[in-house]
Write a structure and sequence with these properties.
single chain; 101 residues; mainly beta; four-stranded antiparallel β-sheet; 1 helix; globular
Length: 101
């Protein structure tokens, strides 16, 4: 199981005119064996959510739990873990080619 609890992510924090709140107390639970599609308009946070899961970008608040309560916070998510597999957005990354020839 994968669970995001009260995830907060801000870009350009500090009360400036450029501050943008991407996630404010965002929650998501994906049970083992469940298939999930993420749909949204450009700039809605789809890729940022995946990057948070992969540890590419830190969160400003909240918790990430995986595999029955194994806890990951923003410091520990930066650590490499053998039970996390992240796929590239493009077909040039970790995704296998589909050869229909």
């Amino acid at each position: 199981m994968l669970e995001l609890r009260n995830i907060e992510k801000y870009y350009n924090p500090g009360g400036t005119i450029n501050e943008m709140c991407l996630f404010d107390k965002f929650n998501l639970t994906v049970d083992k064996g469940e298939f999930v599609s993420v749909v949204g308009s450009n700039g809605s946070g789809k890729t940022s959510m995946l990057n948070i899961l992969c540890g590419s970008i830190p969160v400003d608040g909240g918790q990430i739990l995986m595999n029955g309560g194994r806890y990951y916070n923003q410091e520990r998510i930066q650590e490499k873990s053998e039970d996390w597999t992240c796929l590239s957005e493009s077909g040039n990354g970790n995704m296998p080619d589909n050869d229909d020839s």
